[in-house]
Design brief:
There is one protein chain. The protein is α/β, with parallel strands linked by helices and about 270 residues long. It has a single domain (about 5-265), classed as Aldolase class I (TIM Barrel). The chain is about 50% helix and about 10% strand. An eight-stranded parallel β-sheet has the order 4-3-2-1-8-7-6-5. Strand 5, helix 8 (about 160-170) and strand 6 (about 175-180) form a beta-alpha-beta unit. The chain starts with a helix and ends in a 6-residue tail after the last helix.
Length: about 270
């Protein structure tokens, strides 16, 4: 099964169960290599639908202070793009749900576009989200991904003009990533669900692709509302905040409890 097919199956299963999909985010290598792997395994076995695995990078334009701090800790601990790929491979071999890398374009360019696509397939990854790559410049990477059946969801923000949003939805593989509000990732600011509902309604008439809501999704209530409006919820900073200052089993138990609460909120109201 290709990465695109794996994500299609994720959202199809969620629809059949009358719920949204939950996609948590982790930064590879944070707070340390051993804890990071344990956190990934804990989330993978907690009933989530897919996982975003952040590749640490020193200039993360879309990341708020929580995710940027996680990336910095990971880099200081020796994490790299190659290490993140191997982390995903090990998780895949242990039966993790589909893993999407969240990365920036420069590390991919340095690694090599075709090499990155091949390595992602070998690791069992479903694809990657590359938030700093405009679709006008994404052709070479999208072509490499398509040759290998990898997904490349596109981000639509509140500042995205409607015509451009429709084009991004057409280009998205796996799902459309709808940014819930202006700004960078953070659990400190509330999502703008009124805007989200309006944009989802406008996109429904133009695309059959699932729509997942991210940035600022931090609580079970947020997940519930996102899944009532759209097809899924992406949670990142809140998970990192949950294990702040902790390592090992203490970090794992804190994250496991939060993920369980978030997963229970996926069910849509009848």
């Amino acid at each position: 099964m290709s990465g695109v097919e794996a994500l299609d199956a994720v959202f199809a299963r969620a629809r059949s169960e009358r719920r949204g999909a939950l996609i948590p985010y982790l930064c590879a290598g944070d707070p340390d290599a051993q804890t990071s792997e344990a956190l990934l395994d804990a989330i993978a076995t907690s009933g989530v639908d897919a996982i975003e695995l952040g590749i640490p990078y020193g200039d993360p334009l879309a990341d708020g202070p929580t995710v940027a701090g996680a990336a910095q800790r990971a880099l200081e601990g020796g994490a790299s793009l190659e290490w993140a790929i191997q982390l995903a491979r090990r998780a895949h071999e242990r039966g993790a749900p589909p893993i999407l890398f969240f990365t920036y374009f420069n590390p991919i360019v340095q690694y090599g576009l075709e090499r990155f696509a091949e390595a992602s397939v070998a690791a069992g990854a479903a694809g990657a989200i590359v938030p700093d790559l405009p679709f006008e410049e994404s052709g070479p990477l999208r072509e490499a991904f398509r040759r290998h059946g990898l997904a490349m969801p596109q981000l639509i923000a509140p500042t995205t003009p409607p015509e451009r949003a429709l084009r991004l939805a057409e280009l998205s593989d796996g799902f459309v990533y709808l940014v819930s509000r202006l700004g960078v990732t953070s659990a400190a600011r509330e999502p703008d669900f009124e805007w989200v509902a309006q944009r989802v309604a406008s996109l429904r008439g133009a695309t059959q692709r699932p729509i997942a809501v991210g940035f600022g999704i931090a609580t079970p209530d947020h997940v519930r509302t996102a899944c009532e409006i759209a097809d899924g919820a992406i949670v990142g900073s809140a998970l990192i905040d949950a294990y702040a200052g902790l390592t090992g089993s203490a970090a794992v138990e804190r994250v496991r409890a939060l993920v369980a609460a978030l997963a229970a909120a996926r069910l849509r109201r009848p």
